[in-house]
């Protein structure tokens, strides 16, 4: 299936083409028709699958069909809630990009910056508001936002909302939405609380599932070094000097950590650039351009900042820190080994990260081969958690309430184990109870950033097959 077969208006098709997309990703193929016809959708997918365009394109089309008349004020007709500033900005930028020369105006709202520009944008009028729940609730209380005319509501990354303790804000915002609306909800995992939220928010939804992670994992040459935290910098510098490292994306757990790595590498004579949420959009863009053009071959990133960035042909992904969530490991390493290249994923694990390592190995269903270096792990007693003072991981920033007081971090909710199916196709679980099979779209990418021409390296070069489609019935739980 191509975009032009999806009943999208010509201007949207031009914008999609200008974005460089040729084939809709599985989630786009499954979701776009559903959103166009007004259905509620529960999407089990994470960022990186092309999820944003899956909801943004049909929303833009639906909204552009009924632009406000010249004598009518522009009111908020679509609301997208997303957990982080990074994601809010990214979705906003996507709306701008996909909605070029269309009569739809987006605005973005997030905390941590002055509200003035955001309030001004709202006063000028916006059809689509992309917001983080805390700041939105704040502006609603100040009377700057009214949600009475919202026709489509999107809850993005619902499981992260839960993990980050935003679910209360989400529910408060939702209580102000019109009862009659279209609701789209996306979540990478479906822990029971997210499932419950889905039942409360969605009305007879169609369920779309897409592999949360690329199936190319098996193909990537993975290895792990046990190394003390203090020696990671030496090991990194040594590995980066090795011949086969053409370019490397290095993952740091924290923003400060990313900056520290850049400084340490500089001392070792290696140039690198960092992208993370504390950097301005311009600084991040400049870093990305330097990396993509080859001017700088080492990019240090946090998970959130690296999300959705499209870098092809990476020779190495290095997990300087083990990810806090095992799914992130698969997502990180899926960025290498593309375009027919041999990809390498190297992880550093210190004694305090053994638990994360175990979780990753459980998720991927195999042990990561160990390598030895001149810096073997010598500290074998985990740091006492009381004396350890890690900075909070970026996806779980410290929060303040509306009065600016610190809100205690909530414990992450129980996560449903993620299975890694081999197919990479979206499946649609409809509401009629019928069982269907969706044929695999030729050339469709499980991961949108996968190679456009050559296939990713796979061990057995298995063809992608369509996943079975089951249908279930859901009803909104009004209680
Ligand atoms: P998302 O999951 O929405 O964050 O998208 C991840 C990345 O995939 C972004 O860089 C998008 O620009 C890109 N993308 C989205 N749809 C497609 C597509 N159909 N073909 C190629 N790239 C895409």
Describe the protein in words:
The chain has 479 residues and is an alpha/beta fold. It is 31% helix and 15% strand. It contains 15 helices and 19 strands. The strands form 4 sheets. The protein has an 8-stranded mixed beta sheet with strand order 3-4-2-5-6-1-7-17, with helices on both faces. β12 (316-319), α14 and β13 form a beta-alpha-beta unit. α6 (133-141) crosses α8 (167-174). The longest helix is centred in the N-terminal third of the chain and has 15 residues, at 51-65. The protein is elongated, with a radius of gyration of 22 Å. The relative contact order is 0.14. The site of adenosine monophosphate has 16 residues, from α3.
Can you give me a brief rundown of this structure?
This protein is 31% helix and 15% strand.
């Amino acid at each position: 299936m191509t975009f032009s077969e999806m009943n999208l208006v010509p201007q949207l098709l031009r914008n999609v083409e200008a974005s460089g997309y040729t084939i809709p990703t599985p989630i786009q193929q499954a979701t776009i028709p559903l959103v166009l016809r007004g259905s509620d959708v529960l999407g089990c997918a994470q960022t990186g699958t092309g999820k944003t365009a899956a909801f943004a394109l049909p929303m833009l089309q639906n909204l552009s069909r009924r632009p406000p008349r010249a004598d009518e004020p522009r009111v908020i007709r679509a609301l997208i809630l997303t957990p982080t500033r990074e994601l809010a900005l990214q979705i906003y930028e996507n709306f701008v990009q996909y909605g070029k020369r269309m009569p739809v105006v987006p605005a973005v709202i997030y905390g941590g910056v002055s509200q003035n520009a955001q309030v001004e944008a709202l006063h000028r009028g916006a059809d689509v508001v992309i917001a983080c729940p805390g700041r939105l609730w704040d502006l609603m209380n100040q009377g700057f936002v009214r949600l009475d005319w919202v026709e489509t509501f999107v809850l993005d990354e619902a499981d992260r909302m839960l993990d980050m303790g935003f679910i209360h804000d989400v529910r408060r915002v939702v209580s102000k939405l019109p009862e009659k609306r279209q609701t789209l909800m996306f979540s990478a995992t479906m822990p029971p609380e997210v499932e419950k939220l889905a039942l409360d928010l969605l009305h007879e939804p169609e369920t779309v599932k897409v592999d949360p992670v690329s199936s190319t994992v098996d193909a990537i040459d993975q290895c792990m070094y046990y190394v003390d935290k203090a020696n990671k910098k030496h090991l990194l510098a040594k590995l980066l000097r090795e011949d086969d490292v053409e370019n490397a994306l290095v993952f740091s757990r924290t923003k400060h950590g990313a900056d520290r790595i850049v400084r340490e590498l500089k001392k070792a004579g290696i140039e690198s650039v960092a992208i993370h949420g504390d950097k301005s959009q311009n600084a991040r863009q400049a870093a990305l351009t330097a990396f993509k053009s080859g001017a700088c071959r080492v990019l240090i990133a946090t998970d959130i900042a690296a999300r959705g960035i499209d870098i092809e042909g990476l020779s190495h992904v290095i997990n300087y820190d083990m990810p806090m969530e095992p799914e992130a490991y698969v997502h990180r390493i899926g960025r290498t080994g593309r375009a027919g290249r041999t990809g390498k994923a190297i992880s550093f694990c210190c004694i305090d990260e053994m638990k994360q390592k175990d979780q990753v190995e459980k998720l991927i269903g195999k042990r990561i081969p160990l390598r030895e270096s001149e810096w073997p792990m010598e500290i074998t007693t985990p740091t006492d958690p009381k004396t350890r003072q890690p900075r909070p991981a970026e996806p779980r920033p410290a929060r303040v309430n509306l009065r600016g007081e610190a809100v205690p971090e909530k414990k992450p909710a129980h996560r449903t184990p993620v299975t890694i199916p081999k197919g990479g196709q979206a499946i649609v679980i409809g509401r009629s109870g019928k069982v269907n099979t969706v044929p695999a779209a030729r050339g469709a990418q499980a991961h949108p950033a996968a190679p456009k021409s050559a296939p990713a390296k796979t061990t057995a070069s298995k063809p992608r097959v369509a996943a079975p489609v089951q249908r279930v019935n859901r009803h909104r739980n009004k209680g």
